[in-house]
Each structure stands twice: as C-alpha cells, then as structure tokens.
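Researcher: Please predict.
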Amino acid sequence: MNLCPKKTETKKNFAGVYAGKKTNYTKIRGEIEGLLAELGINRDNVLEFEKEDHPMFLEGRIAQIIVNEEAVGYLGEINPQILNNLGIEMPISGFEIDLNRLHFLSE
C-alpha cells in the first residue's frame, strides 16, 4: 500500500498581523486595499470584500478578499477569546492572501 501522495502542491501565501490598541477591521482592510492598489488592484475595477464566518476571527469583523470574483484571501480581527487563551492582551488584526491565486487572476 502506497501512503505517499501522488502529487504535491506548493502554495505561496502572504500573511501578516497588526497588533496594538488601535487595530481593528477597518485598519487592516485599509492596509490591504493600499497594498493591492500598489499592484493595480482596487475597488474601481476588481476588488471586493465579502463577509465571512470563521471561528478564529471576531464575528462580523472578517471578510474574504475577492479579486475578479474569486476569493484570494481573508482579513479580520482575531477573536479575543483566542488571544486570551494565548495570553495576548492587545487586539490583533490579520490577513492572508494566496499569491498563486492572485498571480493567476492578474494574468
């Protein structure tokens, strides 16, 4: 019996967090909008944000990042219960973008 996968896939993701008393959904979304605008991706042509649910994030403070009608990542405020469980005492917002998917959509 062969337990090894027949095909592997390498993904390139770009992720980051912002920690501080003034961080929130609006701040991280603004940072991502600015970053993507530098790549020529903006709300005027192909960029959208859609509400999403995920237990790692605070309910109502998470969104998928949509480019050309395809999900390429997410952003939001980390759930305070998770932060408390880790002994972190300040708010954290974060994001992750699938660079392979983003590159494919921009071709």
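Model: The longest helix spans residues 25-38.
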